[in-house]
Structure formats: structure tokens, C-alpha cells
Model the fold of this input.
Amino acid sequence: IRWSIGILLVVTIMIVPGYKWRFMDPGTVINQTADVLKNDASITQKYDTRKLHLSDEFRSLMGDASYTVIPWELSVVQFGDNFIPLPVYQTYSAYTPVLDRIDAETLREKDIQYIFFALDTIDNRFPLIETPAIWKELFLNYEIAARDDKKFLLQRVEKDYEESLLTEKQIERNERVEIPVCEENEYIEMGISSDLNLLGKVAKIFYKIPEVNMEVEFTDGTKVEKRVLLDNLANDCLISVLPLNEGDFQNVMEHAGGVKRVKQIHLKGSGLKYYKHAMRVQFKKIVVDKSTISE
Done:
């Protein structure tokens, strides 16, 4: 009986919303990891291959300014005072809204001037929106300084923009959701708040929630289905434009005309049944002042 009560108590504590295990506090763990990355001499020597991987143009533009890497290609950098590792230094591991926000806040608070960026991801995920807060930070506060095939050097800039709430409503978990229509210099953010049901809370204790996919339909009629981190979509996600390749990414970052827009999204996948039927979706509009964008 005592064992049964003990197990029941542990399970109850773990599924109570907001409970945190102190020894697994994400802020503590990731900050310690970042310190090791930046200061461990053996790591510095092992990965000191910057000249082998960064083009002369990239290195010339960066100079002695601060920089980091997104999403994971640490072998291209030279560790030292100018390199600022993100707390979750391989961003595909920022699998919770908190971890996503911590990385985005680091970019902003540390005033990181350059980012060595590639449009890479894992597990057939949609790039960029796997970490919505980071994607928003890149879109609003960086521009492309140089490109070398599939690699980009992003530079921090000051863009003027306005953000406003459009609508908020309840949806069903498998409902097709229309994305609000906007003008050429306007962009739509989407936040989806979802909660695990009892089955999902129990499943997460013993392993993890199966994958959730999202089917995206664009205004030209094309459809693409890939995996998403549903919990992370609670962070405001830039959804009206969704780059799937390097050309799309460059056009979106340069605010070029003619970029195809997202018409609607549809959540799918075996993991969806582990969430409650009712979800909330919120849409915001971002208006970018094009006069503050470099030509």
C-alpha cells in the first residue's frame, strides 16, 4: 500500500501544471553548458577550424564583432571572447517554449552582432518555426549581410515595426485554421495554446509524445506537411511567410515582393490525440517600415 501511495504521489506531482524539478531547471543546466563551451580549452583546440569553413567575405565582415551560430554548426567557429554560444547551443534541442525564449532573449540581451546561419533542421520538422521566438528575433532584428551557397551571415540591424493583436479564439485540435490575409509589408503571427490530456501527461512521464504534424496550404495551392513542436507554437510564430529553402529565406529576410503566403494550417499526426480537444489560437499583425530595411 505504501509503495502504491508513493508512486501515485510522484505521478501526481509530475503532472501538476507548472511543477519544476529543481535539479533539472533549464536555466541552470543550459547556462552551465554554455560556460563549458566558451571556456573549455580542449573544445577550443578541437573545433578551431574557422578558417577552413568561413569564407573570406564572412570573416572580413565579422571582424572582431560578437557572433553566434544557428542552428548547430559549431565546427565553423573559433571559440573565444567574441563567440557567444546560445544557452541551448543546438537550437533543435530548444524543444520547450521556455528554452526557445531563453535563446531569443540571449540574442537580444547580449546584442549579438552576427549569426552564422543555415536553414537546417532534423526529424522532418518545418525549419524556423520549430523555435518561433528565435525565428521572430531573426526576422525583426537581423538582415542578410552575405551568403555562401546554403550558409548565411546575418547582421543585427534596427528595424521599425508595429505589432497589434488581430483576434483570439478557441479551435478544435484537428480544425483547419485560416490565416488572416494581410498586405505586402504586413506579416501574421500565430500562437497556439494547447494542453496535454490525461493520456498525454501519463505518456510524457514514461517517454515522450508521438510526433505532431502540420499541413500547410499556401495561397498558390501547394501543400506541405512536416513535423512541428506543438508546445513551442505557444510562442508567437511568424506564420504568414514560411521559408522552406534558402531562396525563400533570402526573399523573406529581404522583404522581397512575390513571396507566397500561407493560406491555412491543419494539425495532424499520431501525437495529436494526446492533447485536449479545445485549443486557443491567437493572431497578431506585424507591420514593417520598409524605409528601415537595407536595400
User: Anything to note?
Assistant: DSSP finds nine helices and twelve strands in the chain. The longest helix spans residues 2-15. The radius of gyration is 20 Å. Residues 13-25, 40-52 have pLDDT under 50 and may be disordered.
